[in-house]
Amino acid sequence: MGVAVMKLRNPPVNSLSLECLTEFTISLEKLENDKSIRGVILTSECPGIFSAGLDLLEMYGRNPAHYAEYWKNVQELWLRLYTSNMILVSAINGASPAGGCLLALCCDYRVMADNPKYTIGLNESLLGIVAPFWFKDMYVNTIGHREAERALQLGTLFSPAEALKVGVVDEVVPEDQVHSKARSVMTKWLAIPDHSRQLTKNMMRKATADNLIKQREADIQNFTSFISKDSIQKSLHMYLEKLKQKKG
Ligand SMILES: CCCCC/C=C\CCC/C=C/CC(=O)SCCNC(=O)CCNC(=O)[C@H](O)C(C)(C)COP(=O)(O)OP(=O)(O)OC[C@H]1O[C@@H](n2cnc3c(N)ncnc32)[C@H](O)[C@@H]1OP(=O)(O)O
Question: What EC identifiers does the entry list (predicted)?
């Protein structure tokens, strides 16, 4: 039926390394150029994890040129996903913090597994970093200004039930039904003529995408100088240590 399934596979936690981001963007571009493909289901092959978000090791202990290159690729993937002409449905089968949530928010419809261990949200403030304006814009577009303001400041990671209530996801289903539900949602969306759906999607999303397009270079510079700060590097170090200690 012209639907591709994209499975994120970067064990152990599907963090979005530079390599992973680049491969993702290329795969997406290929699908976009394949006229037989009208829809993509985005999911994960890592058990219990949709995506741990941006790779912290790409943002810690590197040089400014690396940060700039990394951020350019984050922007590129976001712009491709958010403005895709294809129907994107995410089958969220695991934890989805920060950049993981961003991937899901780019989709036209989000189905999440009903497992309270899985959480989703933009938790950047908990790491001592700040979600950039275009993450924020997409959050506001999805859940409204007040909910986004609160969730961004608190770095809230929502359980599936909470995420459904606030509108971060569209549907919560038993874990073993995530994929079948994503497929049935896709069938419904495929019934809409592409040209009218695409023009409508473009009308809804263009201003948000253009907002980044017109200041991409400045956004890269902002990110690079922000992430290079000693205080921010220290926060990231502490967060990475906390992740390690969780194990021991
Ligand atoms: C004012 C101007 C503003 C301009 C600022 C501009 C930009 C700044 C903002 C940048 C935006 C960033 C967005 C992000 O996506 S940041 C990443 C946020 N991600 C997280 O907080 C997730 C952290 N991870 C977890 O919570 C958990 O790992 C988990 C995903 C729930 C999975 O838990 P579990 O199964 O128990 O696995 P472990 O915790 O043991 O992890 C295994 C292994 O993986 C490493 N790891 C985890 N997450 C990441 C990651 N995101 N990047 C890199 N590595 C990660 C973890 O450290 C373990 O490593 P070791 O095995 O070596 O110990």
Answer: 5.3.3.8
Name the residue among 130, 129, 134 with its Cα closest to residue 106: 134
Q: Using a 6 Å cutoff on CB, does residue 189 contact ligand 1?
A: no
β-bridge mates for residue 15, sequence order: 53
Q: 81-112 b/e with 16+ CB inside 10 Å = b?
A: bbbbebbbbbbbbbbbbbbbbbbbbbbbbbbb
Q: Looking at the domain 2-191, which fold is it? A: 2-enoyl-CoA Hydratase; Chain A, domain 1 (3.90.226)
- Domain-wise residue ranges, the chain: 2-191
Is the CB of 55 within 6 Å of ligand 1?
yes
ipTM score of complex? 0.98
Q: Is the overall model pTM greater than 0.90, yes or no?
A: yes
Q: Residue 156: exposed, middle, or buried by beta-carbon count in 10 A (0-12, 13-18, 19+)?
A: buried
